[in-house]
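Journal club prep — side note

Before the paper discussion, L.F. wants everyone to see what a predicted structure for a comparable chain looks like in token form. Sequence:
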Amino acid sequence: MPIIIVDLDKCIGCGKCSDICIKAVFETIKLEKYNYMTKYFAAHPENCLFCCLCVGSCPELAITLKKKTFNEIKSF
């Protein structure tokens, strides 16, 4: 399972990541810290195919994907 990092400070809530993801990895969240503006986060990273389409679709470069290392997998 990849690690999907969404930088909520950069996310503008456009939803392009969610629209392009065929595995429904992303969901919306509204936090007080961001004045309840819609943001997207990886709610279901276990569904990710590591295709990186979400990374390429984000106009703000807010999404980073990384493969887990052996030590990260072992720690579960």
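L.F.'s comment for the group: The chain has a mean pLDDT of 92. Keep this in mind when we get to the figures.
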